[in-house]
Amino acid sequence: xxxxxxxxxxxxxxxxxxxxxxxxxxxxxxxxxxxxxxxxxxxxxxxxxxxxxxxxxxxxxxxxxxxxxxxxxxxxxxxxxxxxxxxxxxxxxxxxxxxxxxxxxxxxxxxxxxxxxxxxxxxxxxxxxxxxxxxxxxxxxxxxxxxxxxxxxxxxxxxxxxxxxxxxxxxxxxxxxxxxxxxxxxxxxxxxxxxxxxxxxxxxxxxxxxxxxx
Length: 214
Hints:
This is GST N-terminal domain-containing protein. This protein is of the alpha+beta class. It is built from 8 helices and 4 strands.
């Protein structure tokens, strides 16, 4: 794969899935982290007026899920079969649905009343719904602790790329101080198991350390 440039804010967010795959594969890439104060001036540079986007072979490409899918295919992180890829896509788009419901607003809404309502809906409505979905999908894979295949995210050609959204969800909950308020139920247990399994993998730990992504 040719060298690639990733452009995003100084955040994990929608670029983390892309970063982690590039790091895991040892793929050469450049990263530009746009400061919020510079965004309005830089916005016309983005293909669709949003971040992240990548520069690859002289062209710019946007939309985070599309970019992540391309990277996964190029670097061998898209499962072994078309059904593996379908399951990875399911999880990726479930996470996108979750992110655009209330989780983002629970952190970034400027009005405190609006933010509080997003937090309430995240805890009382979204987390039970989405983690119910995730837990069911985990159970459908022979109960081996992975969504796809039988290996962790960063093992080439057996990559459980679908696991990354769970870690990102946990990160957002922690950064918004909501993690401690997640009810002590099976929902929280599955969240904690995903975090521990991901972050105790030696390849994942090394990847996160290199880019300071914890």
